[in-house]
Write a structure and sequence with these properties.
Number of domains: 2
Number of strands: 3
Strand order of the largest sheet: 1-2-3
Helix content: 55-70%
CATH class of the largest domain: Mainly Alpha
CATH architecture of the largest domain: Orthogonal Bundle
Largest sheet: 3 strands, antiparallel
CATH topology of the largest domain: Ribonuclease iii, N-terminal Endonuclease Domain, Chain A
Strand content: 5-15%
Length: 243
């Protein structure tokens, strides 16, 4: 019995034009080897899609992080990307969307719990991303990464302060050089719910403030703090403002 592909499309918010790509992405080699072979199909399972999806994920995650964190250094971006593309993170997201229920598995994998195995679920997520790209191009692929993988990261791990806490650094630096403690104000928010953008101002004194944008208040606050920290470091040695 075939899985309910239409239900999965609703879950991932992407309707396939070629549903055969979706089916291929979730076909494990154990299922393909037990099915009646198709002489016209030399790759009836998802391993090639896994390979391609891994590359797409690396590219789109890098692009999203570069846009989100314009002040982050290469090492910080690499740390964040490594988590986003890790098999453990992919598996967590796959379990959230019940992706294991849609896997086409051979009897052996079925009996040994293949639907919940980290390796199978992580690979299936990569293959699914490849199928979305092959069906619709880079835009829906990027949207999928941001709406599911990045959004889940935001909920469970946090923002860039995991790599470097600019808000804490700014607070300590202001204290050392005798400035007021920083305050943060949300100036605006816009965009759809799955890709909301927030504009936050970090301010220390009347003449010392910076604003930044991010996909959460926390992320925008960190970016604004980083910019204000850079500005303070450029002040004369006393670091004190007259207001």
């Amino acid at each position: 019995m075939e899985p309910d592909w239409q239900q999965l499309e609703r879950t991932i918010r992407y309707p396939f034009r070629d549903r055969g790509l979706l089916r291929r992405a979730l076909t494990h080699k154990s299922f393909a080897s037990s099915a009646i072979p198709d002489p016209n199909d030399t790759h009836p399972h998802n391993e090639r899609f896994e390979f391609f999806g891994d590359a797409i994920l690396s590219f789109t995650a890098s692009e999203i992080l570069l846009t989100r964190y314009p002040d982050a250094r290469e090492g910080q971006l690499s740390k964040l990307k490594n988590h986003l593309v890790s098999k453990s993170h992919l598996t967590m997201v796959a379990r959230e969307m019940m992706l294991g229920d849609y896997l086409l598995l051979g009897k052996g994998e079925e009996l040994t719990g293949g639907r919940v195995k980290q390796k199978l679920l992580g690979n299936a997520m990569e293959a699914l991303l490849a199928a979305i790209y092959l069906d619709g191009g880079i835009v829906p692929a990027r949207t999928f990464v941001e709406a599911f993988l990045v959004a889940e990261y935001d909920k469970t791990v946090g923002q860039i302060e995991e790599a470097r806490n600019f808000k804490s650094e700014l607070q300590e630096r202001a204290k050392v050089i005798g400035l007021h403690q920083p305050t943060y104000t949300v100036l605006a928010k816009h965009g759809p719910d799955h890709a909301k953008l927030f504009v936050v101002e970090a301010r220390i004194q009347t003449d010392l403030s910076e604003t930044a944008e991010g996909h959460s208040i926390k992320a925008a606050s960190q970016s604004a703090a980083a910019r204000l920290l850079d500005r303070i470091e450029a002040l004369p040695h006393s670091g004190k403002s007259q207001n």
